[in-house]
Structures are given as structure tokens and as C-alpha cells.
Amino acid sequence: xxxxxxxxxxxxxxxxxxxxxxxxxxxxxxxxxxxxxxxxxxxxxxxxxxxxxxxxxxxxxxxxxxxxxxxxxxxxxxxxxxxxxxxxxxxxxxxxxxxxxxxxxxxxxxxxxxxxxxxxxxxxxxxxxxxxxxxxxxxxxxxxxxxxxxxxxxxxxxxxxxxxxxxxxxxxxxxxxxxxxxxxxxxxxxxxxxxxxxxxxxxxxxxxxxxxxxxx
Length: 216
What we know:
Helices cover 31% and strands 21% of the residues. It is α+β, with helices and mostly antiparallel strands.
């Protein structure tokens, strides 16, 4: 370091002999004085690095009333999802996050005197909690969720497969079939509903003993 300073001094002194404009001479002279001073005083002591600890999470506040943020947008790629929450005045140090493999709970404290909460109690699929994060922007908050397995999600929320029949052995075998037909009726289009309604009517009138006969 000292050798480099000496070389700089030599070059500046050479420039000083060729400089003609008063301002240029003054600038070079000042720089020479600064370098000479640094050589006399020696290099500055390197401060000891300040240990960086893990961020202190916000302690859960008891007895607070939260406004649920039910309206938000989201998008995804093959590896992660991003939830966009429109909310101004959020302070990063006043965010409380709880990421679990199948749930998300983010609380925003003291946002213009109010407390907000964005929670998904059961996600569509698993995430990697330790990789998830929250980024605060001037007018919105971005919650990034990393997928445990790559692929496309049809929805953020978990939805049971209503078309899966109930196989409880203790129940009447026909009850599971009827539950299946009810779910198919609820999820189907108008033509499907008419077909199932007719099958029900025929079954009740004795015209068809098997309500699923038309589907086999």
C-alpha cells in the first residue's frame, strides 16, 4: 500500500512541473499534501468486523385485531410463486412471517395505525419454508414461495378431489357411489347435470337399479 502511494506521489510531482493553469496546480498540490500526510500517519487501522446475527423475528402480538387481506394477485414459474399484496406504508421490521410446508401466514403490524394479515391455511402443494421471503415495495408487498417440487399449480389453495369416491368400508357401499354422483353433479356442466338427474329419477322409480349403469 505504501509503495503505491509513493508511486502516486512521484507521478503527481511530475505533473505539477508541467501544469500551467493555477487551478490545476492547486488541485495537484492539495492531492500531494494529502498523500504525504497519509504516508506519515500510516495506513488506517482496520476496524474489527461487526458480527451479523440472524434477524430478530417480530414477537407475536397478543390481542390484536387484524384486517384480512383476502384480495391479492399471484403468478408463478416452474420453481416459485409470487403473491402480490397491494398495501402502502408497510415497514419491513414490523412484518411477522410464519412459513410452513403447507401454509403461509404473514402479518403486517402498525400500517398507518392498523394491522393486516395475509394467510393461506392450506396450500395447494408443499413449499420450502426456509427459502420463502417477503419484499416490501412502496405500494405493495411481494411474498415469494418456493415450491418443494417443480411444476404448475392450478390454484394457491388446497382443494380436495371431489370426484374421488368415499371408500369407507363401514358405510353402505351405495352411499359412496351416491356421494360421487353428487360431486359429479356439482362439478359438471348442464348436460352432465341433466344426465345425472335423469339417472337419479330412474333409480328412484325403479327403472334403473344401478345409477352408474350409463357410465360403464
